[in-house]
Amino acid sequence: MLNPSRIGFGVASVSFILIVIVGALFSLFVESPSLEMQALWKDPYLQHITLFSIKQALLSTLISVGLAVPCAHAISRRAFKGRHLLLKLFSMTLVLPVLVGVFGILAIYGNNGLLAKGASQMGLQWSFNIYGLSGILLAHVFFNLPFSIQLLVQALEQVPSDQKRLAHQLGMKGWNQFRLLEWPYLRKQLPHNIGLVFMLCFTSFATVMALGGGPSATSIELAIYQAIRFEFDLQTAALLALWQLFLCALFQFFIQKIHKPLPVQGKDNHIALPVQTSKKFEKIWDFLWIGGTLLFVLPPLIMVVLQGLNPQILSQLTQKALWEAAANSVFLGAGSAFFAFIFGSSIVLTSRFWKLNGLRQRANALEMSASLILVVPSVVLGTGLFLMLRHFMDVFSSPVWLVLTVNTFMALPFVIKTLSEPAYQLSQNYQNLCNSLGIKGLHRLRLIEWRALKAPISKAIAVSFVLSLGDLGAIALVGSQDYQTLPLYLFRLMGSYQMEGAAAVSLVLLLLSLSSYIFIEAAIKGRSHVAG
Questions:
Q1: pLDDT at residue 199 above 80?
Q2: Structural domains of the chain, ranges and CATH numbers in brackets
Q3: What Rg do the C-alpha atoms of the chain give, in angstroms?
Q4: Local structure of residue 182 (DSSP, 8 states)
Q5: How far is CA 350 from CA 289, 370, 416, in A?
Q6: Would you place residue 194 in the very low, low, confident or very high pLDDT band (cuts 50, 70, 90)?
Q7: What is the C-alpha to C-alpha distance for residues 511 and 506, in angstroms, rounded to an integer?
Q8: Taking Cα atoms as reference points, which of 471, 488, 507 lies closest to residue 107?
C-alpha cells in the first residue's frame, strides 16, 4: 500500500497549479463574448494577427533549424580549442534577457547601428528595416539558432561509439557518413527541435513588442497586451487569450504526436572522428559555418557592453528608479526560483515514488499535469489571473503576486524536466542501499539526494532565477511607474528613444543576469564533483 506522506506534497502542488490555471481560464471564459469559432475566423483583424503569428513563427523556425543543422554537424565532427566554451555561449542565449539581445541587435543592424554607419561611410545606403517582420525574424534566429545547435550537437553525440569506429574502419566519410550514420539521429531530434522553436517563436512577446512594425506586424500576444493596457477592453483580451490558448494546445498536441525521444546512451559514447582524415574542403566548410555562426551571435553581445559604457551609465546608476527596478527583479527572480523548485521537486519526488512502485502512467500524468503551462503562454495566464484578481484587489497597484505566480509557473516545466530523470536514475542506483541502511525521509534527502543532485538542482534554480529576472510578459500587463522591473524600465527607455540610457541599463541587466547565473550555480554546487 502506498504511503500518503510520500505523495502528498506532489499531489497538493499539482492540485494548486491546476486550480490556478483553471481559475484563470474560467475568468477568460466569463469575460469573453459568445465563442463562435466560425464568426471569430471571419474577423479580418483576428485573421491578420493569427496569420502573422504563424507566419513569423514558421519562418523563424525554418531559418533557425535550417542553419543549425550544418553548424551542429560541423561542431560535432571537429575538435578545436574553445569548443566547450562555444557551446556554453550558445546555451546562455536561452536565458539571455530578450531586451538585452534586442538592444544588441539594434546596435548592429538598426537604422543607427554599426552596419548602417559603416555603409554610410562607404557612400552606401543601409536599406534593411529592423522594425517589422525582418527584425522579428532576425531576433528570433539570434536566440534560437544557438539553442537549436546545442540540441542537435547533443543528438549527434548520441551516435554509439562502436558505430563511429566501424564507419571509420570502412572509410565512410563525407556525405555517406552523414546520410547513413548521423542523419538518423538528427532526424529523431528534429521534430522536437522544430516544435520547440516554433512554440517559442509563436508565443514570443517581448521580441515582437520591441521590434514589431505597428499593426502590420502584430502577434496575438501583443494584441492581448494592447487590448488591456491601451484600451482596457477586457472582453477582446479574454477572447484573444482563449484563441491563443486553443492554437497553442493544437500545436503542442501535434508536436507530441510527431516527437520520438532519442535513446539514452552512456556519457562516454562521444568519440570525435579523426580530423586528420578529412579533406581540406571539408575543414574549410565546417569552420566557415562555425565562424559564421559565432560572428552572428557574438557581436550583439559585444555591442551591449561597448555601448553600455557611455557617459549615461553614471547618471543611470544614480537613478533611484533603476535600483528599485533591480530590487524588484531580484525579488521576483528569487521568489520564482524558490517556489518553482519547491513545487517542481515535490512533484518529481512523487512521480519517482510512483515509477518505482510500477505506476509509471500515473507518474507521467502527474508530470504532464504540472507541465500544462506549456500550452498556456505567460500573457494568456497573466490575462486570466488579472481578470480573476481584479474583483478582489487593484492589480495595477499590487502586481507583485500576479507576476510572481506567472513567472513561477513558467519556470516549473524546466525544473521538472531538469530534475526528473536524474532523480529517478539516482533512486534506481541507491534505493536498495538506502533501504538496507535505513536511510529515509529527510535524512535521505539531505545525505543522498541533495549531494548527488547538486548539478541539476543548481542549473534548475539558476535558469529559473534568470528567466524571471529578464521576463517582460506579465510585468508588461500590470506594471506601472510605481512598480517596474529592469526589463520594463529598459523597455520604457527604448520606447522614449533614450538610447544611451537604455544602453547603460542593458549592460546592467546583462551583467546582473550572467553574474546571478554563475553565482547561483557555484553557490549550490560548492565543491561537489558529482555529475548531474
A1: yes
A2: 31-308 (1.10.3720.10), 310-527 (1.10.3720.10)
A3: 24
A4: I
A5: 45, 12, 12
A6: confident
A7: 9
A8: 507
Q: What are 271's three cell numbers? A: 568519440
In single-letter form, the type of residue at position 393 comes to M
How many CB atoms lie under 10 A from the CB of residue 308? 25
Mean pLDDT for 120-137 is 86
417-458 pLDDT per residue, tens: 888 777 777 676 666 666 666 666 565 666 667 676 778 888
- What contacts 347, CB < 8 A, 6 or more positions away? 10, 13, 14, 366, 367, 370, 416
Nearest C-alpha neighbor of 156 from the set 234, 265, 53: 265
From the list 282, 312, 276, the residue with the least C-alpha distance to 490 is 312
pLDDT in tens, 339-375: 999 998 888 888 877 877 777 788 777 777 777 777 7
Q: Which residues of 177-209 are buried (b: 16+ CB within 10 A; e: fewer)?
A: bbeebbbebbebbbbbbbbbbbbbbbbbbbbbb
Q: Of 192, 180, 199, 175, whose CA–CA distance to 70 is shortest?
A: 175
User: What span, in angstroms and rounded, lies between the C-alpha atoms of 300 and 302?
Assistant: 5
Contact criterion met (CB below 8 Å) for 211 and 103: no
Q: What is the value of pTM for the model shown?
A: 0.82
Q: In the predicted model, what is the mean pLDDT of residues 62-81?
A: 86
Cα dist from 415 to 90, 131, 370, whole Å:
20, 35, 11
Taking only the tens place, the pLDDT of each residue in 15-37 is 888 888 888 888 888 877 665 65
Instruction: State pLDDT tens for residues 176-192.
Output: 666 666 777 777 778 87
CB 342 within 8 A of CB 470: no
Grid cell locating 318? 544614480
Residue whose C-alpha cell reads 504511503 in the numeric block: 3
Separation of alpha carbons 211 and 228, rounded Å:
20
Residue whose cell numbers read 527584425: 135
Yes or no: say if 411 and 469 are a contact pair by the CB < 8 Å rule.
no
Cβ pair 480, 396 in contact under 8 A:
yes
In degrees and rounded to multiples of 5, residue 271 shows phi and psi of: -125, 115
> Distance between CA atoms of 490 and 476, rounded to whole angstroms?
12
Kindly write down the DSSP assignment for every residue of 96-112, as one continuous string.
S-HHHHHHHHHHHHSTT
| Long-range contacts of the stretch 114-122 (C-beta < 8 A, 24+) | 114/299, 114/303
